Fold this protein.
Amino acid sequence: MSSNSIRAIARSLRMKFDRLRALSTYKNMFSGNVDGLKFSKPSGTPHVLFVTSNGAGMGHITRCLAIAKSGRKQFHSSFVTLSTSAEVIGEQGFEYLHFASSGTTGQPAGIWNDNFYQFFSQLTRLNKFDAVVFDGTWIYRGLRDVLDKYPELKLIWLRRGLWKKSARVDQLSEMEAYCTKILTPWDIGEYLDQGALSRVHTQTAVRGIILSEGELLSRDVALEELELDPSKHYALIQLGAGNINDISDTRKKVTDAIRNLSSGSVIPILASSPISRQTNREDDLKTIRKYPISPYLRAFDFVVSAAGYNSIHELIRWNIRSLVIPNLDANTDDQQARAYALQDEINHFTALTDLDIETGISALLRKKAEISAVETVSIRYSKFIDSGYNAAQVISETIGSRK
């Protein structure tokens, strides 16, 4: 017997051992608002399982929640998420299971994928999903192994575009081969896209996705619910969860600039992400913890925001004046391109330096007493953005079609 054959046998035995070990360990890795692994579902209704990765922010969950809400008349939705903010899914009225990520458990990728395979295999057997919608950068090997076992299961990859040039695409074609359809939501920065996906044309374009039902709350109602004094003025700071890098220094520069340049007439308010692992070190900075935050945007004269997908498209959909500070340390997302695309609008500014922060906030303070100069901005973009209706329709059509 050749050495190659011996190595192949050893590798096969090792994989079988890992799978057997995963049979007993995966049961301690999930929790949620479901009894065991069986989701409840009305009979005769297509069942869609949304699977989200453990991102640095709330983007994956937010997009999927928007689609699930918009698709209620077309299919029943359940969730599996690796995100530590899984509880917000239950708060939005959906059943969910949280499966601990490799990073949370400290398990090597191979062992974690074996555990995820066992978990997802049992889940698929018990629930018989009509489609799985995966929102994440890489389709996990454990999920691909389940698709090998259940080839009739339709996988829809909800894949945000605008990847950086440095993003890996070496396994892209292999992962795409598992997909019945790949959906990419519209992005204001896509015309500036020169990244890793800019020459990939395997996806189906859908409208941009925001989690928003109806109109925003009026200023008075939003302030009342946030317990803020309506006689004062406020600016919202939402620079992300701070899980990619330490944003405390940037946050302090923004806070100081708002206070100093407004002579104290505008009060900075910090939006705390449900997924944030950082704590606010400024005792005098009021923090609000609302998810989603978008219904309350009219409580603020302007917003200082990171350039993540969800935050940016909420700002342009509702034409909220903003200063955008892209996080250049994001692994895949080209926030700088998105921020540059937004700054073409009259109500939005981009900051890459400390001077940019002061210049942008000064401009926003000059606008604070104005009615929006360009009400047509939100009208112009409304045809490109919705609350997940377009994506839900495509998912429904995909369920009804042959693979």
In short: The chain is about 35% helix and 15% strand.
